[in-house]
Design brief:
Blueprint (H helix, E strand, L loop, with lengths): L4 H12 L3 E5 L17 H19 L5 E5 L1 H4 L2 H17 L3 E8 L3 H11 L16 E4 L5 H14 L2 E7 L6 H4 L7 H12 L14 E5 L4 H10 L5 E3 L9 H4 L10 E5 L1 H4 L5 H7 L3 H20 L6
Parallel strand pairs: 1-2, 1-8, 2-3, 3-4, 4-5, 5-6, 6-7, 7-8
Amino acid sequence: MREHFADRLTAAIRSKRTAAVVGLDPLFERLPTELRPQQATTAAAAGALEAFGREVIDLVAAYVPAIKINSAFFEACYEAGVAAYYRLIEHAHLRGLLVIGDVKRGDIGPTAQLYARGHLAQPEFSDVDAARVADAVTVSGYPGEGGVRAFIEAARQTGRGLFVLVRPSDPGADRVHEFGGPRKFYEHMAALVHEWGAGPELIGRCGLSCVGAVVAPKDAAGTRALRDAMPHTVFLVPGYGAQGASAAACRPCFKPDGTAAIVSASRSVIYAFEEQRYRERFGDDWRACVAAACHEFASDIGRLTALGGTV
């Protein structure tokens, strides 16, 4: 079995001196002109997305410890896109990055077991390289423990991890997550995630569990309460950049020593070539724009991970 996911993530954050993860959520209609597909076929679209993804991975590998690949943006291209998704996982691993597969699966029974088998477990087929399996995936916990147990077992057996949705960044989600009277629904989910990930066999040497949580930093008090409720849980933090959250807003997601969280930015990095401030500096060099945006993002989050002087 490989080293525990939280230990590997903590070491990678320490090595890069930042807890920043770039999200790869590409739309083919927003790709740089030179990469946009000329044919209206799934193969052409998937090929363009994969080419862009490979270049982004190469550009950001020097700055961040991990990349988060959103499978939906590839699944939209049918079987060609699904194949591209798995190849990009392998490419990111070759570049030394940890990979979070943003798949957001959620179901029970055999369905959950097969989702875990296809996205997190060790491959059972001789023609599938384990490098094509993500280091961690995102899942929905709403079906209950039956929806996440197969992922937890796969993570325990393989040294991988998972992030259970606790508090989304979308404002519309508040109608669900703010419901519940004195105890909000996201607080209830936090208690469950802490319980699911608290077994000693799930805790790494760093004191963190392989069962993480997706937590958007919507308000400081609520975020601090979630941090206190899940002391052994790594937070995957969405909302930075294009969605409006600042590094300061993300600060309560971290433990006092600057560990136990990783902050995601997608559009503000991968589409940096659309922004005037980068175009003024680099013109039509979209690669330089992406690299500069990633460096700025990683530096911004790096100041948070250095809070305790241990990362």
